[in-house]
Amino acid sequence: MIETQGLTKHFKDVRAVDGIDLTVAPGELVALLGPNGAGKSTTLRMLTTLIPPTSGTARVAGFDVVRQQREVRLRIGYIGQGNGAGHSQRGRDELISQGRAYGLGVKDARARAATLIESLGLAEVADRKVSSLSGGQRRRLDIAMGLIHAPDLLFLDEPSTGLDPQNRANLQEHILDLRARHETTIVLTTHYLDEADSMAERVIVVDRGRIIADDSPQRLKAEHVGDLITLGFGHEADAASAASTLSGLHPVREGTRLLISTQGAPRRVTGMLDDLRAGGSPAVEVEVTRPTLDDVFLKLTGRSLREGGTAETRELVEV
Amino acid sequence: MTTLITDTRTVFSRELRPVLRDPFTITFAMVQPLVFLGLFTPLLPDDSLQWFVPGIIVMSCLFASSMTGSNLLFEIQTGSHERMLVTPLRRPALLIGRALKEIVPMFAQAALIVAVCVPFGFRFNLAGALLGLIILAAFCIGLGALSYTLALASKNQEWLFWTVQQTLIFPLLLLAGVLLPIENGPGWLRALAKGNPLSYVVDAERALFGGDIWTSATLAGVIAAGATAALGLWAGVRAMRNSD
């Protein structure tokens, strides 16, 4: 569905996108994850024909994004960061003219608009001025506009930015539902870690215009970080003896606590507790921390995504 | 399937819809030049209506189409322009549709102006006037496209749009002999007027409204309007392709 080679975009001296090779197969749901300014949106803007690449090539839905722009545009849907619907317009009118732009007849455009208004829960506000809609309603209207021609490939640029948690969850549901029902290929950018984690089967971590990791969230976490088991003991002596019992797992002792970095922690921890009890130094507390994509990013770049890309050291790194 | 014409219609009707939904503003805008005409023509020598009315029509279209980019500025900020750029709408249709939204109400206004002036002795040739409006539309599409281009260039600095628009519109107007004849001016001013495409359009309008259809003035007007349209569309399409 998407194939890029050495895709690059320079703005004056800034290498916003610096040689991206990317292949997305039909039906995939891919999240581009990275801090602000990593080049996610610029990549998306090249793939959607909004800006020409400085160098490299990209084929989207089978066509070249520079030489066959119209063919690409006919086949993709795009939901940008802003509001697609004009603020002085009415939602239903915008949906109909969007349908007309994709070549639907008046009747079909009306019918399609009505269907989308219904399925995105916009019936009450579709005939109001867009400027009077709430943020969440506008975002749903944007989604409806992006879907008017039932594209096989949908791009979403930071779809849930600025939405409250309830609207975010609602939006994510709509996207997943779309995927399940129509097998739409979906590429979205996000800097929300949980969003990438919960929605995408494939996360592409982008930093400074380059792809630094590309895998399923589970595998990214397992491969780059692993789980963290924290065991608490009554006395330092117990902790020390437990450390020798579990020496095969290279625990790090911090006072009365042991920190163990491992894979598959939830399964392993029960056996571990049995071993400790048998060894005479039972744990009194146990905590299993599963890694987040932020931990992956931190591990890969030495910077945290949560802090907008600034350096932040965390306990986990020391383990 | 879509064509340049259906795409233009899509853009045009989208643009016009909010205007039609708010008839107060449009009525107000329509009546404005009548006030202008009512206050200005008494100052002119007798029989100058024949000379002045085509100029007023050109002036309203000029002002309106130079504003094409102003609505766009807002839509660039909110994101709806970007959304339209990703659709398969043909790029010239985006330019023409938006310019036409400014021009078509002005043509309705032209009809109103003519209707009001006829009882005061204004005479016009219908075929000539219609041809004149087509020429004017071509010129205004070009100007509207340039206004669109200017809006794209000033998307992060709105003041730039207004500064350039205001700086250019009045010299363009005055140097075309819209309000006062150029013939009696000094040589340098006449030379500048000769370089102004709008001069030829205004001359053509006066000749055509007066019934002189097959003249060199008409031909010069067609060429000036056609060249402006071509330049505007070229610049606009190019700006859309390269804007980031």
Describe it.
The complex is a heterodimer of chains A (319) and B (244). By secondary structure, chain A is of the alpha/beta class. Chain A has two domains: 220 residues, Rossmann fold; 63 residues, Alpha-Beta Plaits (2-Layer Sandwich). Helix content of chain A is 38%, strand content 25%. Chain A contains twelve helices and 14 strands. In chain A, the strands form three sheets. Chain A has a six-stranded mixed beta sheet with strand order 6-7-8-3-9-10, with helices on both faces. In chain A, strand 1 and strand 2 form a beta hairpin. The longest helix of chain A is centred in the middle third of the chain and has 18 residues. The C terminus of chain A is likely disordered. In chain B, 78% of the residues lie in helices and 0% in strands. Chain B has one domain. The longest helix of chain B has 28 residues. Chain B has 244 residues and is mainly alpha-helical. In chain B, helix 7 runs antiparallel to helix 8 and helix 7 packs parallel to helix 11. Chain B has eleven helices and no strands. Chains A and B meet through helix 2 and helix 3 of A and helix 1, helix 4 and helix 5 of B. Chain A: Keywords: Antibiotic resistance, ATP-binding, Nucleotide-binding, Transport. Chain A: One of its GO terms (molecular function) is ATP binding. Chain A: This is ATP-binding cassette domain-containing protein.
